[in-house]
Design goal:
Blueprint lengths: L10 E2 L28 E2 L15 H15 L3 H13 L32 H14 L6 H15 L19 H7 L7 H10 L4 H8 L6 E3 L4 H5 L13 H10 L9 E3 L11 H7 L6 H8 L5 H10 L1 H16 L20
Antiparallel strand pairs: 1-2, 3-4
Helix pairs in contact: 1-3, 1-4, 2-4, 7-12, 7-13, 10-12, 12-13
EC number: 1.11.1.7
Keywords: Calcium, Disulfide bond, Glycoprotein, Heme, Hydrogen peroxide, Iron, Metal-binding, Oxidoreductase, Peroxidase, Secreted, Signal
InterPro entries: Haem_peroxidase, Haem_peroxidase_sf, Peroxidase_pln, Peroxidases_AS, Peroxidases_heam-ligand_BS, Secretory_peroxidase
Length: 347
């Protein structure tokens, strides 16, 4: 999952700092959440209780659909987390990634980072259909993506967080933005930092959000160069641990096999934990963009990798904060955008 839309400026939304106990049965979280405290600093117009009165059952509907979808296919959790990342990094968290091609729209799904790899649309569609039955044209597709990302994290064993809501859906998409703003799997550490900083994210956000790669898989085409020609000299990436390198070669031959897959976290690919960071320390990060967190030697990134590898609760706490930060990238609120009836087309 080459993962990763955020906000340059946050404003205090203390007016909506009350807690509400609308819990999802069996998970103990609702609009208020029982996840780590992340304060009350939200993007203008977003707050956790946005649907408290207009669609109080929204989160329960989302979780019910997710439980069944992830039980059928555990990899779906990573797909939905990635869908939110790839949406937010292109013109903000506005569900632009869901729009189909039309006379006026060039779909972001056809961009290099998304084509033939981004998944989970059918689950978002099912959630939207059920919400429309109960609360017609109330819950935005952008908020569904954010709720699905949180729910997928929880159902995979990861943290919960208080999720600011109230995003509206875009009436445009940006194919060019999807091609240029989503970090590539062969990114250098400086590339990653620059792309995250442009979205208002810092080093802690970069490292913790990279930890989303604790679940999911990647296609050979995203890491094959590490095995055979990392620096243009027909040699493998010397930072790869040797046994891991030979195992990857057996999955990804020099020619062909581009769509073969390997888990991003070979030890616990379906469980959200901190093993991803331990693997990086052992030279077993799958993508270049994973391993450079250790080898890039920039700022306090290496120290963060080590800290998260040692302390899972610390990683969970920062991941929760960073997911809120990412979810706050340029949201459409108020009268901007719309609430789509169908997530794939503008009204």
């Amino acid at each position: 999952m080459a993962v990763f839309k955020l906000i340059p400026c946050l404003v205090l939304f203390a007016l909506f700092s009350f807690d509400v106990g609308v819990a999802h049965p069996g998970f103990g979280f609702g609009w208020g959440s029982n996840g780590p405290s992340i304060g009350r600093t939200y993007s203008s117009g977003l707050f956790p209780q946005f649907y408290q009165f207009s669609c109080p059952q929204a989160d329960e509907i989302v979780m019910t659909v997710l439980e069944k979808a992830i039980a059928r296919n555990p990899r779906m959790a990573a797909s939905l987390l990635r869908l939110h990342f790839h949406d937010c990094f292109v013109q903000g968290c506005d569900a632009s990634i869901l729009l189909d091609d039309s006379a006026t729209i060039k779909s972001e799904r056809n961009a290099g980072p998304n084509k033939n790899s981004i998944k989970g649309f059918e689950v978002i569609d099912e959630i939207k259909a059920k919400l429309e039955q109960v609360c017609p044209q109330i819950v935005s597709c952008a908020d569904i993506l954010a709720l699905a990302a949180r729910g997928s994290t929880i159902l995979s064993g990861g943290p919960s967080w208080e999720l600011p809501l109230g995003r509206r859906d875009s009436t445009t998409a940006s194919l060019n933005g999807a091609n240029t703003n989503i970090p590539a799997p062969n990114s250098t550490i400086q590339n990653l930092l620059t792309m995250f900083q442009r979205k208002g994210l810092n080093q802690e956000d970069l490292v913790s959000l990279s930890g989303g790669h604790t679940i999911g898989v990647a296609r050979c085409t995203t890491f094959k160069q590490r095995l055979y020609n990392q620096n243009g000299n027909n040699q493998p990436d010397e930072t790869l641990e040797r046994s891991y390198y030979y195992g990857l070669r057996s999955i990804c031959p020099p020619t062909g096999g581009d769509n073969n897959i390997s888990p991003l976290d070979l030890a616990s690919p379906a469980r959200f934990d901190n093993t991803y960071f331990k693997l990086i320390l052992w030279g077993k990060g799958l993508l270049t963009s994973d391993q450079v967190l250790l080898t890039g030697n920039v700022g306090n990134i290496v120290e963060l990798v080590k800290a998260y590898a040692e302390d899972e609760s610390l990683f969970f706490e920062q991941f929760a904060k960073s997911m809120v930060n990412m979810g706050n990238i340029q949201p459409l609120t108020g009268i901007s955008g719309e609430i789509r009836k169908n997530c794939h087309v503008i009204n």
